[in-house]
């Protein structure tokens, strides 16, 4: 017969993983936008960060129905090298975090499988955000990056 404690422990692990995944998604959004903000600030473009603002045309729930972006001043309406650098900085920030988490994963001993799984749960949103934002679709960073490179 299973005790109460043995039933609760897997439930708590499930809740922990859910919280980590949720925190990873939102944390990656913030980190991604900080990448844009840092690049624009370094380039002297007077950036302004907009996080978790209600979307004008919501397409879903939660973070899908929110606008997250960095606006900045530009000397021209044409795509410039500065636009390219600012657009690339967001996905780059996510790739850097994923790399750091991967190194952390490798350093965690195999005797700590829950900790290793938690690090993977934080790494997944970072990789997904970086890759998804490099697709050349209008509205994502990849559109600016690939448009500039053409």
Please characterize this protein's 3D structure.
The protein is mainly alpha-helical and 150 residues long. The chain has a domain at 18-44 and 79-149. 63% of the residues lie in helices and 9% in strands. The protein contains four helices and two strands. It has helices at 4-42, 81-107, 113-132, 141-149, and strands at 48-54, 66-71. A two-stranded antiparallel sheet has the order 1-2. The radius of gyration is 19 Å and the shape is elongated. The N and C termini lie far apart (66 Å). The mean pLDDT is 84.
What is the SS-derived class? mainly alpha
Mean of the pLDDT scores? 84
Strand tally is 2
Following the backbone from N to C, one meets helices and strands in this order, namely HEEHHH
Give the helix level as a range of percent: 55-70%
The Rg value, from CA coordinates, equals 19 Å
Q: Hey, roughly how much beta strand do the residues contain?
A: 5-15%
Unreliable parts: none
Apparent shape:
elongated
Query: What is the straight-line distance between the termini?
Result: 66 Å
Q: Count helical runs.
A: 4
Q: What strand order characterises the main sheet?
A: 1-2
Question: Biggest sheet, open or closed, and with what strands and sense?
Answer: 2 strands, antiparallel
């Amino acid at each position: 017969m299973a005790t109460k404690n043995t039933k609760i422990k897997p439930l708590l692990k499930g809740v922990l993983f859910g919280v980590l995944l949720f925190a990873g998604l939102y944390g990656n959004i913030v980190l991604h936008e900080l990448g844009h903000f840092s690049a624009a600030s370094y380039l002297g473009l007077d950036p302004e960060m907009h996080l978790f603002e209600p979307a004008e045309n919501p397409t879903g729930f939660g973070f899908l129905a929110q606008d997250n972006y960095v606006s900045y001043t530009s000397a021209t309406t044409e795509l410039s090298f500065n636009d390219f650098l600012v657009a690339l900085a967001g996905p780059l920030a996510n790739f850097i975090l994923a790399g750091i988490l991967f190194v952390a994963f490798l350093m965690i001993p195999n005797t700590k499988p829950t900790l290793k799984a938690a690090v993977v749960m934080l790494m997944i949103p970072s990789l997904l955000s970086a890759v998804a934002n490099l697709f050349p679709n209008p509205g994502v960073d990849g559109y600016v990056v690939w448009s500039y490179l053409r």
